[in-house]
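Exercise 7.
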Amino acid sequence: MSLDALRDAIPDYAKDIRLNLGSVAAETILSDQQKYGAFLASAHGARNGAVIKAIDHWTDDKLSPEAKSAAKAAAAIMAMNNVYYRATHLMSAEDYRKMPAKLRMNVIASPGVEKVDFELWALAVSAINGCGMCLDSHEKVVRKAGLTPEQVQAALRIAAVVSAAAAVMDAEAA
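Solution. The predicted structure, written as tokens, is:
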């Protein structure tokens, strides 16, 4: 399935999602690697098979194999980190926030692409997974690396639209 086919599969009641997919796909404020990686990481973070397949296919000629792997790795590591750090943040006992996580996160130190791009993708997935602690952490890193608030917003918009497309596709498959 291509991105166009995915858009065509979104029913009329979710026309705004269909239109927003086109809008965020035309985004120019991010580099191509940042944009397409945000799409792929968000698709994996949103966990819908049709969305993952469509965006994976759409990014085949837009991302290097290393960038595709890093975008998927961002979604994978955030699937773990977002649960852990969101839980420690939500728990009223502060003891857990002070304890070392003792979880392997080597990919964050050496993702195989520019660190700022990986961090941006981790931020997008953290938005989907609703982890405020991780959002703050990754936003600080990308801003320190020189990304603007508008670039961060572009990645968040991509995450929001891809997540909504996945929710619609899940609902339609139910």
